[in-house]
TrEMBL record:
The lineage of its organism: Bacteria, Bacillati, Actinomycetota, Actinomycetes, Kitasatosporales. It comes from the Bacteria. PANTHER family: ANTI-SIGMA FACTOR ANTAGONIST TM_1081-RELATED (PTHR33495:SF2), ANTI-SIGMA FACTOR ANTAGONIST TM_1081-RELATED-RELATED (PTHR33495). This is Anti-sigma factor antagonist. Belongs to the anti-sigma-factor antagonist family. Gene3D superfamilies: STAS domain (3.30.750.24).
Amino acid sequence: MYIRGDHAELVVGGRLDVRSAADARTVLHSAVDDGVGDLVLDLSELDSWDATGLGVIMGAHRRAGRCGRRLVLRGVPPQMQRLLVATRLHRILAIEGGIGVESLPRV
C-alpha cells in the first residue's frame, strides 16, 4: 500500500488491509489534522480493501467531520462501489460523482 499527496488530496494505491491499516491511519489522520477544507482521497489506484481498510476510511471520515472538514472519495473502483452500496456507506460518505447504484452489476 502506498499513499502520496498532501493535506488536500491523497492518492491511495495497492491493498488497504489489516497489514497496512496502521500506516494508512497515521497518514490520513495527519492529512486531516494539518489541512482545511475538503480532503480528497483518490482511490483509483487501489487494488483492494478489506473490512479493516474500510474502517480506516470511516475513521478518517469521522475525524474530518470533527475537524470541520469533509472526506471526499474519488475514483472508487467498481468492486469497492458494490461494497459501499452493500454496507449502505455510500449514503454516508461523500463520493465525487456519486455511485450509480442502478448501473452496478448484481452479485
